[in-house]
Task: inverse folding
């Protein structure tokens, strides 16, 4: 199980005495950007409050992890992490195996495929309707790494997703909404696509928006955080739920471009809750009159980091 990376972070790492051991956070990462984004969001929020060293490892194989978990008494190791974090089903067995091996707390993000009682802490989005238990924290969507920045006056970002298992992709209807947004809410708009955006949609957006359109293939991993940090307003197609929460965390005013959804769509229920709370608006509220002016900036990673430190695991 090779280690991907290790680095020290925190507000006072350089001031830490040489004889004081820096606390260790180990992230089990399945390599999926969305899952890593959640785990790193929590770990980095913790690091902003206390000096820690963050490292990453890929999950064990299923049988190796299960054998380790069921293998009976295991020795305490000297060089071990103080906290385990993971997101994604492929990380669950490894989290439990290393929890037993190192005898340290394990935090799982999202609703796990294993009973939640096996983990020390579960951070579960409210749309998954988790039960009320001491080891469960209900979150507004998935955690992320976004941070608010200095907003550029008149700036705005439109983020376009694509086909998903929860939504029916209506290219024509989506383009009608984008055209109406550009017409009724003039701003310095930047329009971006995602890896799921069909080529035909990207071609149509290029024709509609000109050089304001930036295809996903022309962006790097820092493009979205940079744009959301500076944007005053962000509109997102409804299938891109993670981007809705990222835009909220970045301090943007957020609008949603609706799509028709499949029955019993838990992702859609989460967006509906945000709308009812005045945290986002839905098209065609182009003036965003439905936003609650007194609503706070959403930052679930920071809130959950406080909860972790309150438990005195680090």
Result:
């Amino acid at each position: 199980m090779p280690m991907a990376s290790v680095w020290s972070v925190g507000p006072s790492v350089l001031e830490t005495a040489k004889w004081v051991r820096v606390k260790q956070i180990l992230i089990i990462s399945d390599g999926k950007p969305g899952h890593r984004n959640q785990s790193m969001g929590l770990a980095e929020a913790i690091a902003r409050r206390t000096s820690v060293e963050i490292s990453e490892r890929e999950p064990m194989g299923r049988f190796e992890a299960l054998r380790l978990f069921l293998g009976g008494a295991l020795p305490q190791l000297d060089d071990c992490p103080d906290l385990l974090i993971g997101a994604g089903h492929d990380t669950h067995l490894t989290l439990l195996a290393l929890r037993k091996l190192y005898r340290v707390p394990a935090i799982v993000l999202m609703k796990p495929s294993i009973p939640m009682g096996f983990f020390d802490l579960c951070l579960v989005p409210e749309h998954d309707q988790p039960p009320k238990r001491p080891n469960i924290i209900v979150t507004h969507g998935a955690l992320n790494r976004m941070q608010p920045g200095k907003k550029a006056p008149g700036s705005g970002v439109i983020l376009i997703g694509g086909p998903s298992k929860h939504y029916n992709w209506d290219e024509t209807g989506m383009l009608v909404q984008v055209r109406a947004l550009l017409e009724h809410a003039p701003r310095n708009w930047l329009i971006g696509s995602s890896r799921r955006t069909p080529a035909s949609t990207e071609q149509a957006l290029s024709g509609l928006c000109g050089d304001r359109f930036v295809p996903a293939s022309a962006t790097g991993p820092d493009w979205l955080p940079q744009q959301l940090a500076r944007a005053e307003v962000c509109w997102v197609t409804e299938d891109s739920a993670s981007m809705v929460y990222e835009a909220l965390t970045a301090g943007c005013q957020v609008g949603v471009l609706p799509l028709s959804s499949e029955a019993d769509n838990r992702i859609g229920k989460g967006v509906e809750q945000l709308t009812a709370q005045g945290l986002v608006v839905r098209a065609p509220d182009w003036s965003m009159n439905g936003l609650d002016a007194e609503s706070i900036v959403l930052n679930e990673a920071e809130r959950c980091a406080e909860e972790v430190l309150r438990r005195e695991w680090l």
